[in-house]
Design brief:
Number of helices: 3
Strand content: 25-35%
CATH superfamily of the largest domain: Glucose Permease (Domain IIA)
CATH class of the largest domain: Mainly Beta
Structural class: alpha+beta
Distance between the termini: 140 Å
CATH architecture of the largest domain: Distorted Sandwich
Number of strands: 15
CATH topology of the largest domain: Glucose Permease (Domain IIA)
Oligomer: single chain
Helix content: 10-25%
Order of helices and strands: HEEHEEEEEEEEEEEHEE
């Protein structure tokens, strides 16, 4: 059967492809040029944002209505690469086993998200004592995020054959490491403080599995990606607890009589 030319669908599509499609692009280009010309004549939008707030939220300019959520601030890929791989952990205060310290408020006690390490003398007896990096790490942050926190340092670590974690050291009196520095396990990173007198001196220590850089709050109804710092450090020591001198063994020594010579005022000592 002979095809009727004006009903040939293939011929109509071929004509549309060669005529209509180029015409569409020409019209679109003209409209785009007109749009750009009109926009250049408009008054530019000026955003009145706080200079201390982030200049961008994702890929959007931070305008008046933009809300920055620090929970979405995460380490950069470069920072993640610079985090050293670790397999040994030690206490951040006292000796390697935390001697001469105690945990005044353990993890999740009264919704507490960290562990409060204090000197055994209590009160402000440990004010100014050194604080150590619990493991090799990369200094993600070091600063004063708020009066309730005082000076805070956050280190980034990569667990051998595991995820990256952060260790968080708060209420510091002084900080001795800059952001971007790699530290070794046992390096002094600061000293125990009291957040400018807001608390009795102690170290608020957290161990975080979440990648956020948000300081957050010290209390919550959920763990919010935190682990028990005291238990995790003990588990991840990866070696025997033999760093302290063991208690002596054998027959106890009998105590001798205690004598004290006292001058009676006439130059004659008496017992």
């Amino acid at each position: 059967m002979k095809k009727i030319p004006y009903l040939d669908i293939q011929q109509h599509l071929k004509e549309w492809h060669h005529i209509v499609l180029p015409l569409f692009f020409i019209i679109a280009a003209v409209l785009l040029i007109l749009f750009l010309v009109i926009r250049t004549g408009e008054k530019p939008v000026v955003y009145d944002w706080d200079p201390e707030s982030p200049a961008r939220v994702g890929l959007l300019n931070a305008g008046n209505d933009a809300v920055f959520d620090p929970a979405f601030a995460v380490p950069s890929p470069i920072e993640m690469v610079l985090a050293p791989t670790v397999d040994h952990f030690d206490s951040p205060v006292g000796s390697r086993l935390g001697a001469l310290t105690y945990n005044a408020q353990p993890f999740l006690t009264d919704r507490h998200l960290g562990d409060d390490f204090n000197g055994i003398g209590g009160w402000n007896s440990d004010l100014g004592d050194p604080v150590y990096a619990v493991a090799d790490g990369y200094v993600l942050s070091a600063g004063w995020p708020g009066d309730g926190w005082g000076n805070v340092i956050t280190l980034l670590h990569e667990i051998e054959d595991g995820p990256q974690i952060q260790t968080f050291y708060a209420h510091l009196d002084t900080m001795t490491v800059p952001v971007g520095k790699q530290v070794r396990r046992g390096d002094k990173i600061g000293t125990i403080g009291n957040a400018n007198g807001n608390y009795l001196a102690h170290l608020h220590f957290e161990l975080r599995t979440s990648p956020s850089l948000d300081v957050g709050g010290g209390y919550a109804d959920e763990k919010l990606g935190r682990l028990s710092g005291e238990l995790a450090l003990k588990k991840w020591r990866s070696r025997n607890d033999d760093q302290l001198v063991p208690a002596p063994v054998g027959t106890p020594i009998e105590p001798g009589a205690f004598q004290l010579d006292v001058d009676d005022g006439e130059g004659t000592p008496s017992n």
